[in-house]
Known about the structure:
The complex is a heterodimer. Chain A contains eight helices and seven strands, in the order E-H-H-E-E-E-H-E-H-H-H-E-H-E-H. By secondary structure, chain A is an alpha/beta fold. The two termini of chain A are 36 Å apart. In chain B, 20% of the residues lie in helices and 17% in strands. Chain B folds into two domains: 4-76, Ubiquitin-like (UB roll); 84-209, Alpha-Beta Plaits (2-Layer Sandwich), CATH 3.30.70. By secondary structure, chain B is α+β, with helices and mostly antiparallel strands. Chains A and B meet through helix 4, helix 5 and strand 7 of A and helix 3 of B.
Amino acid sequence: MKKRIATVSLAGCFGCHMSLLDIDERLLDLLQQVEFDRTPLNDLKRFTRHCDIGLVEGGCCNEENVYTLQEFRRNCDVLIAVGQCAVMGGLPVMRNAIMHSEDPLRECLETAYLNSDKIYNPSNRIPSDEALPLLLDKVYTLADVVKVDYQIPGCPPSGETLWNILEALLAGRPVELTYEQLRYD
Amino acid sequence: MSDSFKFEIDGVEVLARRGQSIMQAADEAGIYIPRLCDVEGLEPQGSCRVCVVKQNGRVVSACTQPVIEGSIVENESEEILGYRRDLVRMLYHEGNHLCPICEASGRCELQAMGYRLGITQATKYPYLQPVRPVDASHPDIVLDTNRCILCGRCIRASRDIDKKHVFEYVGRGIRKRVGVNGYNLADTDIALSDRAIDLATCPVGCIIQKGRGFFAPIGERQFDKRPITLGILPVKERSEQ
């Protein structure tokens, strides 16, 4: 039976998904072995059934990210954090290093929407529509929120790296990355 | 040659002279012992502990420990590699090391050490995400202390080679940091030509020369193709050059 893969981008830039597409024609080889469940690649928004592998890009910066990540953990046997944001927070995590005051989130939002000369915001309000997920007090890595089985560093990890790891995982053998395939940038 | 003697590193017989540190003897023999706070031309201080080895069963820092005649040194054993991985991970978790946006990425010795040790998996350590200042006051130099690993190479270079004493450790324990001798960097007599500012001095991206970021393209940076050895070539390769 084909293995089922789900992917998602939380607080990420979809760079890691682009990198997955970078495996080029090997995507066809991959599709021989796997079936994609919930993923932006086929635009499925919900899990149709339990999956074998979950690839998660990006860290957690709002409550929707946490909800989605927990859903992935429940529905995937092997959960893989893909890319620097999922592994250590990535660029969004810069928010944590500047937010150490009494009311850090308010300070951050006021700087972004109210107290800067470069902002055009006639309503003078911080966006608070019900449809917008609430921001977390800081950015969390995936391992902070759920149990993560594997981590693939890189910004993004190259297509070669992803292919190498997926191939090894599907074949059930240990991954051997070359020196060039392990990168933190 | 009466003051020279033999000892062993990972089963290889190495010749040393009396008074040499384990690292000096290993370097001369073409055996690379990983290191971050030690660099050629500066007094070793043994603070990063990445060069830990076992000499006759005792864990010591290779850059400061003198060789004992006839001793047996473990350098690449699984136990020692485990210590080094933990040390490098802790350095990563203690500062704000954002490789994707760092000018030093690709020529950073901390990052290269991570690659060399094959660090990928999550650790039990928390990311401390400290609040640290960036000093961009100087016209030619930026000091981004988010990336500092307290190796003290700039301190020793400025003190011993430039004779300027621009940098110094301030505070103790978890609050320890590198400070400058003045209100900010522009307030000191530091200059681009100083050894402390040399690209080879700061192992990470803490001391940055303005206008020189990202000078090497990805794929051609210092550690893109070859693991870090800091120019220590095996004896065989050296004789070919």
